[in-house]
Amino acid sequence: MPSLHLGPVTIDFPAVQAALSGYSDWPMRVIAKRLGAPYTLCEVMLDQFVVNVTKGNRARRFLHVSDEEHPCGAQLMGSAAEPFVPAALKLVERGFDVIDINFGCPVKKMLSRHRGGYLLCEPEVAIDITARVRDALPPHVPLTVKMRRGMDDSPQSREDFFRIFDGAFRSGVAAITVHGRTVRQRYEGRASWEFLREVKQHAGDRTVLGSGDLFAAQDCLDMMAQTGVDGVTVARGAIGNPWIFREVRALAAGQVLPPPGLAEQREVIAEHYSLAEEVYGPERGCYRMRKFGIKYARLHPEHEQVRNAFAAAKDRQEWWAALERWY
Length: 327
Hints:
Blueprint: E1 4-6, E2 9-11, E3 15-17, H1 26-34, E4 40-41, E5 45-46, H2 47-52, H3 57-62, E6 72-77, H4 81-93, E7 98-103, H5 108-112, H6 123-136, E8 143-148, H7 155-171, E9 175-179, H8 193-203, E10 207-211, H9 217-227, E11 231-234, H10 243-252, H11 262-280, H12 282-296, H13 303-312, H14 316-326
Parallel strand pairs: 3-11, 4-6, 5-6, 6-7, 7-8, 8-9, 9-10, 10-11
Antiparallel strand pairs: 1-2
Helix pairs in contact: 1-11, 4-6, 6-7, 9-10, 11-12, 12-13, 13-14
Protein backbone atom coordinates (compact mmCIF):
# COMPACT_ATOMS: atom_id res chain seq x y z
CA MET A 1 0.00 0.00 0.00
CA PRO A 2 1.26 3.51 -0.70
CA SER A 3 2.28 5.81 2.11
CA LEU A 4 -0.11 8.51 3.25
CA HIS A 5 1.10 12.11 3.16
CA LEU A 6 -0.30 14.84 5.39
CA GLY A 7 1.72 17.75 4.08
CA PRO A 8 5.31 17.17 5.21
CA VAL A 9 4.29 14.31 7.54
CA THR A 10 4.64 10.88 5.95
CA ILE A 11 2.62 7.99 7.35
CA ASP A 12 3.89 4.62 6.22
CA PHE A 13 0.50 2.90 5.87
CA PRO A 14 -2.90 4.41 4.97
CA ALA A 15 -5.06 2.87 7.73
CA VAL A 16 -4.93 5.02 10.87
CA GLN A 17 -6.73 5.33 14.20
CA ALA A 18 -9.42 8.00 14.31
CA ALA A 19 -10.06 10.44 17.12
CA LEU A 20 -12.57 8.78 19.44
CA SER A 21 -14.28 10.93 22.04
CA GLY A 22 -13.91 9.30 25.44
CA TYR A 23 -11.63 6.58 24.12
CA SER A 24 -8.49 7.54 22.16
CA ASP A 25 -6.49 8.68 25.16
CA TRP A 26 -2.77 8.07 25.61
CA PRO A 27 -3.07 4.39 26.66
CA MET A 28 -5.32 3.45 23.75
CA ARG A 29 -3.10 5.27 21.27
CA VAL A 30 0.04 3.56 22.55
CA ILE A 31 -1.55 0.11 22.34
CA ALA A 32 -2.74 0.80 18.80
CA LYS A 33 0.71 2.05 17.81
CA ARG A 34 2.38 -1.06 19.20
CA LEU A 35 0.00 -3.22 17.17
CA GLY A 36 0.59 -1.50 13.85
CA ALA A 37 -1.30 1.80 13.76
CA PRO A 38 0.97 4.18 11.82
CA TYR A 39 -0.79 7.31 13.07
CA THR A 40 -3.28 8.02 15.84
CA LEU A 41 -5.45 10.95 16.87
CA CYS A 42 -6.22 11.90 20.45
CA GLU A 43 -9.81 12.18 21.63
CA VAL A 44 -11.38 15.48 20.64
CA MET A 45 -10.74 18.42 22.97
CA LEU A 46 -12.60 21.71 23.24
CA ASP A 47 -10.49 24.69 22.22
CA GLN A 48 -11.29 26.58 25.43
CA PHE A 49 -10.35 23.58 27.56
CA VAL A 50 -6.93 23.38 25.89
CA VAL A 51 -6.34 27.09 26.37
CA ASN A 52 -7.30 27.03 30.04
CA VAL A 53 -5.77 23.77 31.25
CA THR A 54 -2.27 24.49 32.48
CA LYS A 55 -0.78 21.80 34.66
CA GLY A 56 -1.55 18.91 36.96
CA ASN A 57 -3.42 15.70 36.26
CA ARG A 58 -5.79 17.07 33.62
CA ALA A 59 -2.99 18.45 31.50
CA ARG A 60 -1.00 15.25 31.94
CA ARG A 61 -3.95 13.10 30.91
CA PHE A 62 -5.11 15.03 27.86
CA LEU A 63 -2.00 16.76 26.54
CA HIS A 64 0.52 13.96 26.95
CA VAL A 65 2.38 12.63 23.91
CA SER A 66 5.12 10.01 24.31
CA ASP A 67 8.11 9.49 22.02
CA GLU A 68 6.84 6.23 20.55
CA GLU A 69 3.59 7.80 19.37
CA HIS A 70 4.92 10.03 16.61
CA PRO A 71 3.35 10.97 14.35
CA CYS A 72 0.33 11.77 16.48
CA GLY A 73 -2.51 14.22 15.86
CA ALA A 74 -4.64 16.34 18.17
CA GLN A 75 -8.28 17.05 17.34
CA LEU A 76 -9.95 20.31 18.32
CA MET A 77 -13.58 21.36 18.43
CA GLY A 78 -15.18 24.75 19.04
CA SER A 79 -17.60 27.31 17.66
CA ALA A 80 -15.48 30.30 16.60
CA ALA A 81 -12.04 30.99 15.20
CA GLU A 82 -10.56 33.03 18.06
CA PRO A 83 -10.02 30.26 20.67
CA PHE A 84 -8.90 27.76 18.04
CA VAL A 85 -5.62 29.52 17.30
CA PRO A 86 -4.06 29.59 20.81
CA ALA A 87 -5.36 26.08 21.46
CA ALA A 88 -3.74 24.75 18.28
CA LEU A 89 -0.44 26.44 19.08
CA LYS A 90 -0.48 25.02 22.60
CA LEU A 91 -0.99 21.50 21.27
CA VAL A 92 1.97 21.94 18.93
CA GLU A 93 4.07 23.04 21.91
CA ARG A 94 3.03 19.88 23.75
CA GLY A 95 4.39 17.73 20.92
CA PHE A 96 1.48 16.86 18.65
CA ASP A 97 2.55 16.57 15.01
CA VAL A 98 -0.77 17.36 13.29
CA ILE A 99 -3.76 19.52 14.23
CA ASP A 100 -7.18 18.23 13.17
CA ILE A 101 -10.40 20.28 13.30
CA ASN A 102 -13.69 18.52 14.04
CA PHE A 103 -16.64 19.57 11.88
CA GLY A 104 -18.43 16.26 12.32
CA CYS A 105 -19.40 15.56 15.94
CA PRO A 106 -23.12 14.59 16.05
CA VAL A 107 -23.59 14.83 19.83
CA LYS A 108 -26.65 16.96 20.63
CA LYS A 109 -24.89 18.90 23.38
CA MET A 110 -22.17 19.97 20.97
CA LEU A 111 -24.65 20.84 18.23
CA SER A 112 -26.65 23.01 20.61
CA ARG A 113 -23.49 24.99 21.35
CA HIS A 114 -22.69 25.43 17.64
CA ARG A 115 -19.73 23.05 17.70
CA GLY A 116 -18.69 20.02 15.69
CA GLY A 117 -21.20 18.99 13.05
CA TYR A 118 -23.23 22.17 13.52
CA LEU A 119 -20.58 24.09 11.61
CA LEU A 120 -21.46 22.17 8.47
CA CYS A 121 -24.42 24.58 8.37
CA GLU A 122 -22.11 27.60 8.70
CA PRO A 123 -19.68 27.44 5.77
CA GLU A 124 -18.22 30.89 6.29
CA VAL A 125 -17.45 30.22 9.96
CA ALA A 126 -15.93 26.82 9.18
CA ILE A 127 -13.73 28.22 6.42
CA ASP A 128 -12.68 31.14 8.62
CA ILE A 129 -11.60 28.73 11.35
CA THR A 130 -9.47 26.65 8.98
CA ALA A 131 -7.89 29.71 7.40
CA ARG A 132 -6.95 31.34 10.70
CA VAL A 133 -5.57 28.17 12.23
CA ARG A 134 -3.58 27.36 9.11
CA ASP A 135 -2.09 30.85 9.03
CA ALA A 136 -1.09 30.60 12.70
CA LEU A 137 0.49 27.16 12.62
CA PRO A 138 4.18 26.67 11.82
CA PRO A 139 4.68 25.55 8.19
CA HIS A 140 5.90 22.10 9.22
CA VAL A 141 2.69 21.29 11.15
CA PRO A 142 -0.13 20.03 8.89
CA LEU A 143 -3.73 21.04 9.46
CA THR A 144 -6.44 18.52 8.65
CA VAL A 145 -10.24 18.53 8.92
CA LYS A 146 -12.84 15.91 9.86
CA MET A 147 -16.30 16.28 8.26
CA ARG A 148 -19.51 14.36 7.86
CA ARG A 149 -21.27 14.40 4.49
CA GLY A 150 -23.65 17.11 5.66
CA MET A 151 -26.14 17.97 8.36
CA ASP A 152 -28.77 15.94 6.51
CA ASP A 153 -29.58 14.78 2.98
CA SER A 154 -30.97 18.10 1.77
CA PRO A 155 -29.57 19.86 -1.32
CA GLN A 156 -28.51 22.76 0.92
CA SER A 157 -26.44 20.45 3.13
CA ARG A 158 -24.74 19.00 0.08
CA GLU A 159 -23.95 22.48 -1.21
CA ASP A 160 -22.59 23.55 2.17
CA PHE A 161 -20.43 20.41 2.38
CA PHE A 162 -18.60 21.06 -0.88
CA ARG A 163 -18.30 24.75 -0.10
CA ILE A 164 -16.50 23.95 3.15
CA PHE A 165 -14.54 21.11 1.55
CA ASP A 166 -13.13 23.28 -1.24
CA GLY A 167 -12.70 26.31 1.02
CA ALA A 168 -10.70 24.32 3.56
CA PHE A 169 -8.33 23.06 0.87
CA ARG A 170 -7.93 26.61 -0.44
CA SER A 171 -7.02 27.62 3.10
CA GLY A 172 -4.16 25.16 3.03
CA VAL A 173 -5.35 22.06 4.86
CA ALA A 174 -3.32 18.97 4.04
CA ALA A 175 -6.16 16.44 4.09
CA ILE A 176 -9.83 16.03 4.88
CA THR A 177 -11.45 13.00 6.47
CA VAL A 178 -15.05 12.41 5.41
CA HIS A 179 -17.43 10.23 7.39
CA GLY A 180 -20.10 8.74 5.14
CA ARG A 181 -23.04 9.51 7.44
CA THR A 182 -24.85 12.79 7.97
CA VAL A 183 -24.90 14.50 11.34
CA ARG A 184 -28.61 13.67 11.72
CA GLN A 185 -27.84 9.99 11.17
CA ARG A 186 -25.43 9.94 14.08
CA TYR A 187 -24.29 6.27 13.96
CA GLU A 188 -27.47 4.77 12.54
CA GLY A 189 -27.80 3.12 9.16
CA ARG A 190 -24.99 2.52 6.73
CA ALA A 191 -22.29 5.03 5.87
CA SER A 192 -22.44 6.08 2.23
CA TRP A 193 -19.31 4.85 0.53
CA GLU A 194 -20.84 6.06 -2.72
CA PHE A 195 -20.60 9.60 -1.40
CA LEU A 196 -16.96 9.01 -0.47
CA ARG A 197 -16.25 7.91 -4.03
CA GLU A 198 -17.92 11.04 -5.35
CA VAL A 199 -15.92 13.24 -2.97
CA LYS A 200 -12.62 11.65 -3.97
CA GLN A 201 -13.42 12.10 -7.66
CA HIS A 202 -14.20 15.75 -6.94
CA ALA A 203 -10.99 16.16 -4.93
CA GLY A 204 -8.63 14.84 -7.58
CA ASP A 205 -5.08 14.69 -6.22
CA ARG A 206 -6.05 16.32 -2.92
CA THR A 207 -5.78 13.91 0.03
CA VAL A 208 -9.07 12.46 1.25
CA LEU A 209 -9.51 9.88 4.00
CA GLY A 210 -12.66 7.84 4.44
CA SER A 211 -14.52 6.90 7.60
CA GLY A 212 -17.57 4.82 8.44
CA ASP A 213 -18.31 1.11 8.95
CA LEU A 214 -14.71 -0.05 9.25
CA PHE A 215 -14.93 -2.97 11.64
CA ALA A 216 -12.52 -5.46 10.08
CA ALA A 217 -9.29 -5.40 8.10
CA GLN A 218 -11.11 -6.30 4.88
CA ASP A 219 -13.43 -3.32 5.34
CA CYS A 220 -10.44 -0.98 5.24
CA LEU A 221 -9.10 -2.39 1.99
CA ASP A 222 -12.59 -2.53 0.48
CA MET A 223 -13.24 1.14 1.23
CA MET A 224 -9.99 2.20 -0.44
CA ALA A 225 -10.65 -0.02 -3.44
CA GLN A 226 -14.29 0.97 -3.90
CA THR A 227 -14.01 4.70 -3.27
CA GLY A 228 -10.45 5.61 -4.26
CA VAL A 229 -9.80 7.47 -0.98
CA ASP A 230 -6.14 7.90 -0.07
CA GLY A 231 -6.54 6.35 3.38
CA VAL A 232 -9.02 5.29 6.03
CA THR A 233 -9.53 6.20 9.67
CA VAL A 234 -10.67 3.34 11.87
CA ALA A 235 -12.93 4.55 14.68
CA ARG A 236 -15.32 2.27 16.60
CA GLY A 237 -13.77 -0.75 14.92
CA ALA A 238 -10.55 -0.14 16.85
CA ILE A 239 -12.10 0.01 20.33
CA GLY A 240 -11.26 -3.27 22.00
CA ASN A 241 -9.66 -4.53 18.78
CA PRO A 242 -6.29 -2.81 18.29
CA TRP A 243 -5.21 -5.90 16.33
CA ILE A 244 -7.12 -4.53 13.35
CA PHE A 245 -4.10 -2.42 12.41
CA ARG A 246 -1.77 -5.40 12.35
CA GLU A 247 -4.34 -7.42 10.43
CA VAL A 248 -4.93 -4.83 7.70
CA ARG A 249 -1.18 -4.47 7.13
CA ALA A 250 -0.91 -8.24 6.72
CA LEU A 251 -3.97 -8.46 4.48
CA ALA A 252 -2.59 -5.75 2.20
CA ALA A 253 0.52 -7.92 1.85
CA GLY A 254 -1.55 -10.97 0.93
CA GLN A 255 -1.53 -12.63 4.35
CA VAL A 256 -4.49 -13.52 6.57
CA LEU A 257 -3.63 -13.47 10.25
CA PRO A 258 -5.62 -15.55 12.73
CA PRO A 259 -7.45 -13.58 15.43
CA PRO A 260 -5.49 -13.13 18.65
CA GLY A 261 -5.72 -16.03 21.07
CA LEU A 262 -6.70 -15.64 24.71
CA ALA A 263 -3.08 -15.51 25.85
CA GLU A 264 -2.30 -12.58 23.57
CA GLN A 265 -5.56 -10.86 24.45
CA ARG A 266 -4.66 -11.17 28.12
CA GLU A 267 -1.21 -9.69 27.51
CA VAL A 268 -2.54 -6.70 25.58
CA ILE A 269 -5.40 -6.01 28.01
CA ALA A 270 -3.00 -6.18 30.94
CA GLU A 271 -0.62 -3.82 29.15
CA HIS A 272 -3.47 -1.41 28.43
CA TYR A 273 -4.54 -1.49 32.07
CA SER A 274 -1.02 -0.74 33.27
CA LEU A 275 -0.78 2.26 30.96
CA ALA A 276 -4.15 3.54 32.18
CA GLU A 277 -3.07 3.15 35.78
CA GLU A 278 0.13 5.03 35.00
CA VAL A 279 -1.66 8.08 33.65
CA TYR A 280 -4.89 8.05 35.72
CA GLY A 281 -3.80 6.42 38.98
CA PRO A 282 -5.12 3.15 40.50
CA GLU A 283 -8.69 4.25 41.29
CA ARG A 284 -9.47 6.24 38.17
CA GLY A 285 -7.52 3.79 36.00
CA CYS A 286 -9.89 0.97 36.95
CA TYR A 287 -12.93 3.14 36.28
CA ARG A 288 -11.53 4.23 32.92
CA MET A 289 -10.79 0.65 31.87
CA ARG A 290 -14.31 -0.67 32.46
CA LYS A 291 -15.56 0.55 29.09
CA PHE A 292 -12.46 -0.83 27.36
CA GLY A 293 -12.91 -4.19 29.07
CA ILE A 294 -16.47 -4.34 27.77
CA LYS A 295 -15.16 -3.84 24.23
CA TYR A 296 -12.24 -6.26 24.59
CA ALA A 297 -14.72 -8.90 25.80
CA ARG A 298 -16.31 -9.07 22.34
CA LEU A 299 -13.39 -11.20 21.12
CA HIS A 300 -13.77 -13.71 23.96
CA PRO A 301 -15.80 -16.92 23.40
CA GLU A 302 -17.72 -16.21 26.62
CA HIS A 303 -18.11 -12.55 25.81
CA GLU A 304 -21.25 -11.82 27.82
CA GLN A 305 -19.84 -13.21 31.07
CA VAL A 306 -16.49 -11.50 30.50
CA ARG A 307 -18.21 -8.20 29.72
CA ASN A 308 -20.20 -8.42 32.94
CA ALA A 309 -17.10 -9.25 34.97
CA PHE A 310 -15.19 -6.23 33.69
CA ALA A 311 -18.19 -3.94 34.07
CA ALA A 312 -18.61 -4.98 37.71
CA ALA A 313 -14.94 -4.45 38.70
CA LYS A 314 -14.71 -1.74 41.35
CA ASP A 315 -10.96 -1.72 41.96
CA ARG A 316 -7.66 -3.04 40.73
CA GLN A 317 -8.00 -6.35 42.57
CA GLU A 318 -11.39 -7.14 41.06
CA TRP A 319 -10.22 -6.15 37.59
CA TRP A 320 -7.20 -8.45 37.72
CA ALA A 321 -9.32 -11.23 39.20
CA ALA A 322 -11.58 -11.01 36.15
CA LEU A 323 -8.58 -11.08 33.84
CA GLU A 324 -7.13 -14.11 35.67
CA ARG A 325 -10.40 -16.00 35.56
CA TRP A 326 -11.37 -15.46 31.94
CA TYR A 327 -8.01 -15.23 30.19
